Input
Amino acid sequence: MNHITEILILLFLAITFLQSGYDKIADWNGNVGWLKSHFENTFLGNKVPFSLGIILILEIIAGILALAGIWFLTMNDNKEIALYSGIVSCITLLFLLFGQRIAKDYDGARTIVIYFIPALFLVFILQ
Output
């Protein structure tokens, strides 16, 4: 039962980001279309596909690092990859928060904070 808190948070992050990344890949056009309308009155309106690609890459990296972090924690008590997962997760969520604030979607921004808290807690307990 070593590192159970870290492992549970890493599982949460892996599920969150890998599912979100999969959704972006599986329905790229639907996501781009919805986001273009979401950001149409902002400076991000004509940068949606590029921005979505950046978010997709960050989410996949965060999710893979979370799974790798679990492996390294359980196999050889190494916290480094788990910490990187927490950091990349926080950065990804800050990008998402920034976008929601730019779009003036304050409810969406508030929702992102719910995901940010465990990611930040993971960084806190691993540093």
In short: The chain has a mean pLDDT of 96. The chain has one domain: 4-126. The two ends are 20 Å apart (CA to CA).
